[in-house]
Structures are given as C-alpha cells and as structure tokens.
Specification:
Blueprint: E1 2-6, H1 11-22, E2 26-31, E3 46-49, H2 55-62, E4 67-70, H3 77-82, H4 84-105, E5 109-115, H5 138-156, E6 160-166, E7 168-170, E8 173-175, E9 178-180, H6 190-195, E10 203-206, E11 218-219, E12 221-223, H7 224-236, E13 243-248, E14 254-255, H8 256-267, E15 273-276, H9 291-297, H10 305-316
Parallel strand pairs: 1-2, 1-4, 2-3, 4-5, 5-6, 6-13, 7-12, 10-15
Antiparallel strand pairs: 8-9, 11-14
Helix pairs in contact: 1-7, 2-4, 4-5, 8-10
Bound molecules: uridine-5'-diphosphate-4-deoxy-4-fluoro-alpha-D-galactose (UFG).
C-alpha cells in the first residue's frame, strides 16, 4: 500500500514516515517545508515539495497512492490568534483541495491529524469524543471545520476516514538516520523548553494559580511513537462511508510542575523555573478519555511521561 503523508517532513509526519517505511508501506510525501525540514525525507520516499494550496502539487503527490495521512497544517495556538486568515487558508482551504484531489484520483482512505483544541474549555474531564466542540482559538476552529468537512465528504462521496484528536504530543523516535524530534523555532512546547532551561534563562511556568492540585496547568501527554501506532491502527480500520473520531492521549494528566520533576529526574539536577503569569487561551486541565481508541482500535499507549522526557533529552545530543 502506498500512503501519501502530507506534512511528512515535520515532527509528527516524519515519525509516521519512518514507522510506515519500517512496516513495509510505500511512502509519498507532500510538504512545503515551511515548518518541516527537507533533511527529514528518507531515501526511498517519493517527495513532492509543494503546497496544499496548489492542486497540481497535490495531484502529483497522490499518484499511485491508496491512502492519505494528512498531517500538514499550521499548528500554533498563539500564532493562529494573530493570523486567523493564514490558518483558515492553509488548514481549511488546503484540506478542501486535498479532499477534491483525492476524489479526482479515486482515493478514499484518509487519516487526519485533528486536535483536542477542537473541544475548547472542557465542561468535563476526561474528555470524550462526543463532548461539546467550542474551540477557543482559530487553530482549534480550523481543525473542527476540517473534521466537519470530512464528515460531509464521507456522506457525499463515501470516503473512509478517521480524525485523530491529539492531546499533547511529546517524545521522539530514534530512526536509522538519527533522532526525529521537535525542531521548532521558536519552540513553544513545554517539554523541550523545560529541558533547555538554564539559570540565566529559566523556563517560565505559565500560571501558578490555576484550580489544580499544585496550581499549574494539567495536560495529557502522548508519546509520538504511540501516536503513530494509533494512526496505523486507524488506517487499517477504515470503513467506506464512515468518519470516526478518536481522542489520542495517555488518559493521564500531568501538571507543569510534575513535568518539570520528571525532566529533572531525567537530566539529573533540579531544572530552574520561574513562576510567570498565565498564558492567554490556556485551559486549566485537558485530559483525554481514550477508551474509544482502546476498544475500537485495540490501541494501548505504552510510553510514560518519563520515557517522553528521556527521549526528548536524548534527541538533543
Ligand atoms: N507551558 C509553560 N511554559 C512553557 C510552555 C508551556 O508553563 O514554556 C505550559 C502551558 O501553559 C500549558 C502546558 O505547559 O499549560 C503545555 O503547553 P504546550 O505549549 O506544550 O502545549 P499546549 O497544551 O498549549 O498545546 C498542545 C498543542 C496544541 C494542541 C493542544 C491540545 O500544541 O496544538 O496541545 O492539548 F491543541
């Protein structure tokens, strides 16, 4: 089976490419490398450097493919607040173009990277897939719009699809070409920032007065390797005319201070931090209910928070 991996040069997409190749899939990649890195493209993959906003690029990338894993898109909450039009254009219009070109090419299998940001501030945790979707930022709104577009597409054109709503992706994969890891500039995610903290430039803890046990935000971290395992299980479970939605986390919550403690244990000294004001748009607690993915996909995440920080740390060396 040949899978088109959009966004296949980025952090999550390149990990998917590597694992899919190892499992014997043939791979095509479509990426404009605006966030990813062309040096992540392995030998053996068919690489189209192009944009979701250019239907011809998509059509070239789809040649001979049987399925699509759609990772490409803008994914920074803060940036989406500043540039909502950019997020709508790349994420929503780009995904529309992808669905149209899949239709032209007769490709019906799709696994899409959605986000917990579609839910917004949860009324109940852990969050189930049927929780209300009220995104609190343009990023989450674009992911929800794409999910809705895919549902309509599954009814109108009978495609087989799964949207995977990621909680907080972390960790890294050691591939035969070295570590595949987060390489964002600027880096906004907690775990890499904690591991790079120095006494001169300590990591900021965004808010210590949240209504949580230790006053810091609680998130559900899932290892990128477990995440891709769920993608492959989702791909193999697709049914024509059906669009399934799955939450992907570990089902456990860790506060910012607990993540700092896990990282300190991995690095061997107490990581310096500085208490700082809350970050705009942050919900207090996000934890996934992953029972649907466990039951319907037979998926069990196996990496804990210690493995996520240790792998991220190892990827720095
Ligand atoms: N945090 C800090 N200091 C930092 C960075 C983050 O205290 O330097 C805190 C944040 O305030 C938050 C937590 O650590 O409480 C996690 O923050 P991240 O930036 O690592 O991740 P987010 O929870 O903001 O967002 C991530 C993805 C989104 C996705 C969301 C869903 O980036 O795309 O998870 O759970 F929508």
């Amino acid at each position: 089976m040949r899978v088109l991996v959009t966004g296949g040069t980025g952090y999550v997409g390149s990990t998917a490419v590597d694992i899919l190749l190892t499992k014997g899939y043939s791979i095509s990649i479509l990426d404009d490398c605006s966030m990813g890195h062309s040096d992540n493209v392995p030998t053996g993959a068919n690489f189209v450097q192009g944009s979701l906003l250019n239907p011809d690029d998509i059509a070239r990338a789809l040649v001979d493919c049987d399925a699509v894993m759609h990772f490409a898109g803008k994914s920074l909450v803060g940036e989406s607040v500043e540039k909502p039009d950019l997020y709508h254009s790349v994420n929503v219009d780009g995904s529309r173009n992808l669905l149209d070109q899949m239709h032209v090419a007769g490709i019906k299998n799709l696994v899409f990277s959605s986000s917990a940001a579609t839910y917004g501030e949860p009324r109940q945790v852990p969050i189930k897939e049927d929780a209300p979707t009220q995104p609190t930022n343009p990023y989450g709104a674009t992911k929800l719009a794409i999910d809705q577009m895919i549902t309509a597409e599954s009814k109108a054109r009978g495609i087989a699809a799964a949207s995977l709503r990621y909680f907080n992706v972390a960790g890294a994969l050691k591939s035969s070409r070295g570590w595949l890891a987060e390489r964002h500039n600027p880096e906004t995610h907690l775990i890499p920032n904690v591991l790079r903290s120095t006494p001169e430039n300590p990591v900021k803890i965004f808010g210590t007065d949240w209504p949580t046990a230790d006053g810091t935000c609680v998130r559900d971290y899932v290892h990128v390797v477990d995440l891709i395992d769920a993608h492959i299980k989702a791909l193999l479970s697709l049914q024509l005319g059906v669009h399934e939605i799955y939450n992907l986390g570990s089902g456990d919550g860790y506060s910012v201070r607990q993540v700092v403690a896990a990282a300190s244990a991995a690095i061997g000294y107490e990581i310096p931090t500085i208490d700082s004001p809350r970050r705009a748009g942050d919900p207090a607690v996000l934890i996934a209910d992953i029972s649907k993915a466990e039951e319907k996909l037979g998926w069990v995440p196996t990496h804990d928070i210690q493995a996520m920080v240790s792998d991220t740390l190892a990827s720095f060396s």
